[in-house]
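step 4 of 6: structure.
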Amino acid sequence: MTCPNSFLKFFYFYHMIREQVDLKPYNTFGISVPAKFFATFQDTNQLRELIEQKKQEELLILGGGSNLLLTKAFKGLVLKNDLQGIELLSENDSEAILQVGGGVVWHDFVLHCIERELGGVENLSLIPGSVGASPMQNIGAYGVEIKDVFDHLEAFHIASGEIHRFDHQDCAFGYRESVFKRKLKSQYVITKVAYRLSKKPVLNTSYGMIEQELERMQINQPGIRDVSNAVIAIRSSKLPDPKKMGNAGSFFKNPVIPKEHFEQLVGEFPEIPSYPIDAQSVKVPAGWLIERSGWKGRNFGNFGVHEKQALVLVNYGGALGQEIYDLSEQIMSDIEQKFGIRLEREVNIL
Ligand code: FAD
Ligand code: EPU
């Protein structure tokens, strides 16, 4: 006879793991492909049991699906992170450390900090996606990256089922990089992230158009809420809203090239923009390279290159992931031919 416990377990998983689920609502590109299995987890015990239940299956850990391009059916188990909660770990006169569940929506966390006058993440307002994904590529915008506020994280080790702690130096953060995208790829589920926020925020308004936007808003003595509003206004003016037009933000990273190569390019394209990195290297905006090559705003029916931001590839509705991937290949080979620069994709391809 089945004991009530195993009956409950069967009942629980029967309802928890769905089969042949269309992933369209779960990725901001709005690509329709099926997942063989799909489940959501709200705590680490559920996560452990779901992985145990389908241990032969390939896994995809999903946050907001805002940095993914799905090119084919996913023949494994998709686990959507719904770990909630924001907890004060410690505080003193100058700072507070908040620990946040990996499934919390990133921008909700930013608003939580702004409401409590905790500074550090206001420049990262409106970045789509989840807290758990924020360390994956060390999200960044307007002169700030999460490495600047990161304290530590907890992650579930898939092979052993153990929870491991990662401090700053363990994460190997770089520009759109971390150890979780490289050496430890697909080995962990990030369950909680702790950030160090400032009670005496020093505003960072020197980047991009923030100062001009504050001026336009007629704000002379800005606080963190004003900076957040300025960033939201700038972002909304050039980046497409995924609810209206499928996209995953910048499709490519901005390339970092040797100084000698840059100097050759300046000879040919004196107007080329750049950001100094160090004595040997320079960062060049990929958006400029792509626009200069005539791709900006190009429309291929269901998909194309965004008309206001050449770094963003878009799904106008009904595009296949493979079509967008093929477009990215064409852009990459064109840029390589024209500038001798091999672009690298920022978006994760599946
Ligand atoms: P997903 O797309 O769900 O996942 C991304 C990758 O991380 C996948 O490989 C997934 O398996 C893995 N992953 C997700 N969660 C976890 C977890 N808890 N544990 C382990 N692995 C996990 N990014 C920036 O850095 N700066 C920007 O300014 C920016 N602007 C954007 C604007 C728009 C309009 C869009 C659509 C995207 C933008 N992005 C930007 C990219 C994206 O928002 C970030 O990369 C974000 O962190 C992705 O979060 P997500 O939860 O949607 O991750
Ligand atoms: N540019 C063009 N044409 C374009 C787009 C950009 O010439 O169509 C040139 C201009 O010279 C412009 C410069 O590129 O001044 C920089 O453009 P922008 O400020 O829009 O930023 P970006 O380099 O294109 C990066 C990040 C964004 C982040 C913004 C703001 C990367 C790959 N992208 O974009 O992050 O929001 O800066 O800090 O680093 C993302 O990662 O998904 C993302 C959106």
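step 5 of 6: annotate
 - Helices lie at 4-16, 44-53, 106-115, 210-216, 224-238, 259-268, 286-292, 321-339.
 - The chain has three domains: 4-81, 86-238, 246-349.
step 6 of 6: archive
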